[in-house]
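User: Predict the full complex structure for these chains.
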Amino acid sequence: MIRLAWRNLTQNPARLLISLGGVSVALVLMLTLDAIFTGMEQRVTAFIDRSGADIFVSQQDVRNMHMASSSLARGQQARVKSVAGVASVTPILYVTNPILAGKDRSLAYIIGVPSDAKAGGPWEIESGREDPGAGGVVLDVGVAAKAGIGLGGEVEILGDTFEVVGLSHGTASMAGSVAFISLDDFADLWQDSDTVSFLLVETAPGEAPEQVAAGIEARVRDVTAMTRQEFARQERKVVRDMSTDILAIMNIVGFLIGLAVMALTVYTGTLSRRAEYGVLKALGARNGKLAATVVWQAVISVSLGFLIALILTSLLTVAAPLASASLRLVIGLPSVAKVVVTSLVIAGVASLLPIWQMARLDPATVFRRR
Amino acid sequence: MLMARRNLGRDRTRLLLNIAGVALAILLILLLTGIREGMFRQITSYLDRTPGSLLVSQGGVENLLSVTSLLPAGATARVQGTRGVESVIPILSQYTILDLHGRKQAAYLIGYVPARGGGPWRLAAGRAPRADDEAVFDRVLAERHDLALGDRVDVMGRTLEVVGLSEGTTSWMTSFFFLRKSAVESLVRLPGATSFLLVTTDEGASVDDVRSRLASLDGVDVHTKGEIAANDRKLFARYFSAPVTLMAAIAALVGALVVGLVIYTATVERQRDFGVLKAIGAPNRSLYLVVVAQSLIASLGGVVAGSVLAIGARAGIMALRPQFLIVLEPADFVLALVVGLGIAMVAGLYPARRIGGLAPAEVFRR
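Assistant: Here is the predicted structure of the two-chain assembly.
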């Protein structure tokens, strides 16, 4: 059956190329749009995911960072540290504010980190140093490039001037970039050395973060403690509401139209082979066999088209960040599974439709209808 | 043309499939580019819909959204007294995180003086606030959180009654809500504070001259609304622009490829018919004319169908998710038509030229 499907498919190379072209183009649309969406959504929680913290402790009922403010008394740090299962506690200050670099202005999560931070600092340094130190800032490499500044350059944050001492990677998302300054500088600018925004907790080896978080909430008053994963989930929810929804809607539109284009291609491809199926019918092939043959053809077309689309999308995941540092494309397994499964189902249905129509005809009519 | 029409009409299913293919491609291009355009427009919706040509802000402030501006005391009177200024609308604004039914929601708060303007430009229901404990919420924001006229909402520690629902004041980023300026002054504990002044110049006065005079006032910056809008677009679209533009570009490329592929296939599939034409002595010019006519009919049908589908899909998406604006303008349809027909011509004539170069018998052998 598969051999028959393969032969039927490849006997006319021009037609095969057209079919594959249509299927590949549709799959490229679905895969690339999904890769852009996934990549940008993952970046939104990059700071949380890569912070190194197992638990985020915030002011009571503050469950995310984006557009939120959290204020904890510094004294809470010692109380959190005394909870069983806590290995380290790093205080950070945080605010969303524009960074002014020359004429260039961009929104950023400004993070104040202590020099001995166990968590919360930049996770991938392109050049310079990791610790911003007094008067220094670690800036996203893309933001710096766009502003035309490098190490030693100056930017204005919260009304004060900072020297760029480090350039970090992976710290730009749709919600803005992440810039790191020292906790003391931040507190000076804020004119408040008694509070911090969040406490980043590392748990001791073997301790379950969920249990330690519950322990913190039970023993320390007026705080909310969440595991990194839960905190990231809440952040995604807020940012999705405010930002990434626009990509989600574009992704859905592209996905649905991609499926329709593929269905149309497979349907047209099957229809154009009607004469061949007429021959098979005239030779006594049962309708079931015909159906199986066209379904295999659809499976082969989708599989080959998927390979081509995957290669093209992979190339784009490499090329896009070179064009714009804020772009990141991720081909995730769930995305691939979604595209492959729905494509196979739609292609199968689209290929069976003309066969179902032909099944009710006698072979001669099939030829007459050509 | 007649021959082309007959040729196409002979196999209506195939013609419909071709039209459907082109229609899907046009739908894809129009929708995704429309979403992108809508995204940029929504960023500046407040500036676009409020009166005035100049915006006075605190010195060093070059944006309306996402920054804090506080004008020096007495700035409003000084601006109002400047030669060439017809009217001044003061607003006090800032981002606020609302706690609506236990769910955090960022919204942009605008305090305005109802008698002067700067508030909601269209009310879907209710009225403007008359007291400091009354507010106008964006209709979409209200619907998303089951808020209705008469409901009470806690904002920055104070309970406000929803007395109006505004239209066109939402976006993919956030929604606006409006209070009397005096109410916001009280909420932020800054009596008499003003963030921005929307300035309308006298008729006949040069905007540049008025701007220069205003710029000489202490502690303020003066920009045209266009400049502020451009800065806001740049600031907010900075991180969105790249992925959204890439998505729209991929959609446009894929759409163009689909149109090309559909028309190319339609021409190749009819090569036997063209062989017959050649066999009975038709010159290549006639062959090309038939191909052009067929491509025109199929692509024109597809562009029209795709445009109609795009209008329907736009209405459907905006009804389901009103925070999104999809912009479809006559120029977009004209562009879709020109691009669709252009690609169809190339995709149709390319195989036709190849067929034209073959002997009739050769055409059948292929």
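The two ends of chain A are 24 Å apart (CA to CA).
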